[in-house]
Design brief:
Its main location: cytoplasm. This protein is α+β, with helices and mostly antiparallel strands. Helix content is 34%, strand content 16%. The protein folds into two domains: 2-54, 2-Layer Sandwich (Double Stranded RNA Binding Domain), CATH 3.30.160; 70-148, Winged helix-like DNA-binding domain superfamily/Winged helix DNA-binding domain (Arc Repressor Mutant, subunit A).
């Protein structure tokens, strides 16, 4: 397993993966130093994340390798269908998966998403529009949503 730590607007970000793809991206309390060398297997992920943060990328194309239960993988794959700049609710996500009684289980799976940003669990909000739950902290969720959908005033500059 290769790893690299890069600086992002969300703080130091840890990226891990191997020849099968990127398996983890985390921004939560990464206090380790920024990496001076980027492993070849992670170079494309680093490049695309930097493009995302500078506003020139809306879709990720590097290989990912999701590790979790079959249910978690199903939930995470449904997150990949949420378009850039759009949000959905946990209820809508549960309808899409086909089990409206599984809202809590879906929310729990979202919270265990190992590929923050790329598998966009930040795009799932409460039915009332509230910013509910985000493993890396609500301020990061708010930042990501604003980054993906700036107000019209921000777009003018």
């Amino acid at each position: 397993m290769e790893r690299v730590i890069i600086k992002t607007p969300l703080g130091n970000t840890l990226i891990e993966g191997d020849h099968l793809g990127v398996s983890s991206i985390s921004t939560k309390n990464i206090s380790e130093e920024i990496s001076t060398k980027i492993p070849n297997v992670l170079a494309e992920a680093v490049k695309q994340l930097q493009e995302y943060f500078d506003g020139s990328r809306k879709k990720f194309t590097f290989p990912i390798h999701l590790k979790g239960t079959e249910f978690q993988k199903k939930v995470w794959k449904s997150l990949l269908e949420i378009p850039f700049g759009k949000t959905t609710s946990y209820l809508e996500q549960s309808k899409k998966i086909g089990n409206t009684k599984a809202i809590r289980a879906i929310a729990s799976a979202n919270g265990k998403n190992p590929l923050s940003i790329v598998v966009p669990c930040h795009r799932v909000i409460g039915s009332d529009g509230s910013l509910t739950g985000f493993a890396s902290g609500l301020w990061r969720k708010k930042w990501l949503l604003e980054h993906e959908s700036p107000s019209p005033q921000q777009k003018l500059f």
